[in-house]
Amino acid sequence: MFSRVDLESSPPRVTFPRRYNAAVDLVDRHVVEGRGARVAVRDDRGATTYAELAARIDGVVHALRGLGVRPEERALLVMHDTADFPAVFLGAMKAGIVPVPVNTLLTAADYAFMADDSRARVLVVSEPLLPKVAAAIEASPWLEHVIVAPSPLPSPPAERAPASRATRRTLHELLAAAPSTAPEIAKTTVDDVAFWLYSSGSTGAPKGALHLHGHLVQTAALYGGGVLGVGPDDVVFSAAKLFFAYGLGNAMTFPFHAGATAVLTAERPTPATVLRVLREHAPTIFCGVPTLFASILADPAARDAGIGGEGGWRGRCCVSAGEALPRHIGEQWRARFGHDILDGIGSTEMLHIFLSNRHGEVRYGTTGKPVPGYEVALRDESGAEVEDGAEGLLWVRGPSAAAGYWNQRERSLATFHGPWTRTGDTYVRDADGYFTYAGRSDDMLKVGGIWVSPFEVESALAEHPRVLEAAVVGHADADGLVKPKAFVVLKGDAAPAAGVREELRDFVKSKLAPYKYPRWIELVSELPKTATGKIQRFKLRAGA
Questions:
Q1: Which part of the chain has CATH 3.30.300.30?
Q2: Which residues pair with 321 in a beta bridge?
Q3: Which of 81, 197, 234, 381 is the most exposed place for a label (fewest CB within 10 A)?
Q4: Which residues make Cβ contacts (< 8 Å) with residue 304, sequence separation at least 6?
């Protein structure tokens, strides 16, 4: 029932029995092999061992089956990061039910769309989020059961339960009533759909990507083990939440596969929250996004709290994804903390990182090389591979690619081409095999007949000492010609003094070819982002 990993083969190889359930492999294996007393999760309420988590997972199996939810039906999860999240997620999978975790920061309309699109029969929701999903509960013709999970975050005032045919129970009462006997494991195969993840919506409406039981351990073995070297003594904290592919691997799959400990918090990953977690739990591996790393470096409270100082938290490894990591942020982090940030790129469709920098081989400004077990190619619009030094569209193939999008035939055909997945990102490969990000294919600008990468302009702006972060989009001038327009967030202690826009323009001109500088600079308090930290440039374009 367990997978086998051979990292010595070339490429590394993970083999599975035909009859396979990932929940058993990730948690029950540790109990069977005598590691049940190890701590699996530390959250805002305390510690949960692997044995305790396994028992809670079994309780979820009994609870869902007791409600009449059947294999292959969907369970929508709108849950904060606590030990209940992996219990419900893996419990659904162990029962053959398909969990669909979604962003906890969405609107009521988003939840209504996802409840209807997924046709979920059961909704598991953290209590403070109930008002946000009330409209979805009321409108859905599919939902039959609502399970309310506890959360350490404050709940809003009690409201009238939404009008719905769905029953409403608490997770606590369902688990308390569940038998203590081990449930029957669903007769799933390695190729059964195990869970869905909705794309983060950086380019518009989300799409449900279908992932299989074998995909979780593939990413844990090839990236979590093969690149990060996650081991049983590691403590892993991910600022990215579990509802998103990056966070699901960082904070559940990787530590659980290795028998390590995951640190979870229900709070939003503000710099203050992250600094508290680093102080209190001293994770050995910290996973974030470029904006968060930049905020910590710029935050005086980080130094006051001893983060990065003598005797303060330093960890052994940091990981960045979501957006390309600007060179200067990586270099400043290494100088302050004594270790590198391993920048990489992954996607909802590929489940986790497939192109990454490695320990001892970091080149800041690049996204590194393909993760062993994955193959990457750069192609032009016709599908032909491009030469080193030329920009090309990034294609990837590997063992964790989604089976397709739910109910999205045309978009599936545009993204998945046999074993290859078209990412929509533009990259350049150098002679040493390192890949450098050039932007999204739909974000590239043509200025004066020459292609300009928004990311290149953003990186130049971000090097200025006044700038915290920046985003660049195309904007038409009075003649209808497209030029770069920048949206800039200044650092907290950098007041928007007179002449700052001209100062920033001149700074970019000193760094890049003259035609690339932003003709317009708008100072903003924040940039629109997905929950994963990706800048939503389509919103900036619409606003511009």
A1: 446-543
A2: none
A3: 381
A4: none
| Structural element, H or E, at residue 415 | helix 409-415
**Considering the chain, what percentage of its residues have pLDDT values greater than 90?**
71
Cβ neighbors of 118 (< 8 A, separation 6 or more) are 74, 76, 100, 196, 208, 406
- Please state, in angstroms and as integers, the Cα–Cα distance from residue 445 to each residue in 117, 201, 214, 482, following that order: 34, 21, 39, 7
pLDDT band at 202 (very low <50, low <70, confident <90, very high): very low
Cα dihedral sign, 519-521-527-528: negative
User: What are φ and ψ of residue 214, in 5° steps?
Assistant: -75, -15
Question: Is residue 133 predicted with pLDDT exceeding 70?
Answer: yes
* Residue 473 predicted with pLDDT over 80: yes
* Number of Cβ atoms within 10 Å of the Cβ of 517: 24
Does residue 150 contact residue 125 with C-beta atoms inside 8 Å?
no
Q: Say whether pLDDT at 129 is over 90.
A: yes
> H-helix or E-strand containing 473?
strand 467-476
Q: What angle do CA 184, 187, 193 make, to 5 degrees?
A: 125
Pairing between β-strand 74-78 and β-strand 285-288 as defined by DSSP bridges: unpaired
CATH class for the domain made up of 446-543: alpha beta
Contact 78, 48 (CB under 8 A): no
- CATH 3.40.50.980 region(s) of the chain? 45-212
In the predicted structure, residue 348 carries a pLDDT above the cut 80:
yes
How far apart are alpha carbons 534 and 294 in whole angstroms? Answer: 14
Q: Are 534 and 291 in contact (CB under 8 A)?
A: no
CATH of domain 45-212: 3.40.50.980
Neighbours of 524 (CB within 10 A): 16
Amino acid in position 467: V
pLDDT tens sequence across 407-454: 999 999 999 999 999 998 999 999 999 999 887 777 777 676 666 778
Which pairing describes strands 341-346 and 317-320: parallel, antiparallel, or unpaired?
Answer: parallel
Calculate helix-pair angle for 290-298, 271-281, nearest 10 degrees: 80
